[in-house]
């Protein structure tokens, strides 16, 4: 399986311009014989949607999504989804003109300069899904920071975790070094869930945000096998051996005893005690 990491900038609120740019990236990836092209979070819309005067959300039935997969490779693209009554920070996986799966971001940051709860509704489900190349799951940015979600995706059979992201640096005095946090987080996910992890971050400036790139792919042992540059647009192509997931999970069967009954009982107890 050959994956292309489309580490790109985008134009805030200009869907057509971003679709055109994505199309060019897909065509280039096709020329490099990629099977899948992964774009960053909200790659068709930009992040600071509160400063866009109109509603630029689009439905997953928008023909432009289907057309992006018409050049050969499958596509995972980030969008501001029109869910009719609600709007979502979503990522759709499209293959051969069909949207196979759409993940709606589950955990919306609402602190410091991140105010996603003002503009999006949270999703309500996490599902691994079959693609023509492997069983996959999507975690959008802050989803990957919730330890239970990568575990649930792996338990649902995910061999590859796609992590489209808008991670910025230095947005507030004393802010954490997000690049270091992501480095450690992705290593932890790959090793504990014993799967491929494909992290695709945006680049460019938008308001006070400076997106730093650094997209990468980690194997089921936690080794970084490909990495895009910092602070620059790039199309990085890497070959992934999906069978390595099964091999690693046989070597060290960390996931074989999930104890769902135990987890369900303890979550139920916490809910009864008013935690949620």
TrEMBL record:
CN hydrolase domain boundaries: 1-242
SUPFAM superfamilies per record: Carbon-nitrogen hydrolase
Extract the GO molecular function terms from the UniProt entry: N-carbamoylputrescine amidase activity
Do you know which InterPro entries this protein is assigned to? Aliph_Amidase/BUP (IPR050345), C-N_Hydrolase (IPR003010), C-N_Hydrolase_sf (IPR036526)
Q: Coiled-coil region(s) at which residues? A: none
Keywords from the UniProt entry: Hydrolase
The keyword Hydrolase is assigned to this record: yes
Mind telling me which Pfam families this protein's record contains?
Answer: CN_hydrolase
Q: Please verify whether the record's keywords include Hydrolase.
A: yes
Q: Which PANTHER family match?
A: BETA-UREIDOPROPIONASE, NITRILASE C965.09-RELATED
Q: What is this protein called?
A: Amidohydrolase
Q: Which organism is it from?
A: Streptomyces armeniacus
């Amino acid at each position: 399986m050959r994956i292309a990491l489309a580490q790109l900038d985008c134009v805030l609120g200009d869907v057509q311009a971003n679709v055109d740019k994505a199309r060019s990236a897909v065509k280039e990836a096709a020329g490099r014989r990629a099977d899948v092209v992964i774009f960053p979070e909200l790659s068709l819309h930009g992040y600071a949607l509160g400063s866009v005067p109109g509603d630029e959300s689009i439905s997953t039935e928008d023909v432009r999504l289907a057309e992006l997969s018409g050049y050969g490779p499958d596509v995972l693209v980030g969008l501001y989804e029109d869910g009719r009554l609600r709007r979502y920070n979503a990522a759709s996986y499209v293959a051969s003109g069909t949207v196979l799966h759409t993940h709606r971001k589950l955990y919306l940051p609402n602190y410091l300069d991140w105010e996603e709860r003002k503009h999006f509704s949270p999703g309500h489900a996490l599902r691994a899904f079959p693609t023509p190349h492997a069983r996959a799951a999507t975690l959008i940015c802050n989803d990957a920071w919730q330890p239970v979600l990568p575990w649930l995706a792996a338990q649902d059979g995910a061999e590859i975790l796609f992590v489209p992201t808008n991670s910025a640096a230095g947005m507030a005095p004393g802010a954490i070094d997000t690049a270091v946090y992501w480095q450690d987080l992705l290593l932890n996910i790959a090793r504990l869930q014993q799967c491929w992890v494909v992290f695709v971050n945006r680049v460019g400036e938008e308001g006070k945000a400076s997106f730093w790139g650094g997209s990468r792919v980690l194997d089921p042992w936690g080794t970084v096998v490909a990495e895009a540059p910092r602070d620059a647009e790039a199309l990085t192509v890497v070959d992934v051996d999906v069978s390595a997931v099964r091999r690693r999970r046989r070597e060290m069967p960390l996931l074989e005893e999930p104890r769902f009954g135990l987890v369900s009982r303890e979550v139920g107890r916490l809910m009864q005690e008013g935690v949620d």
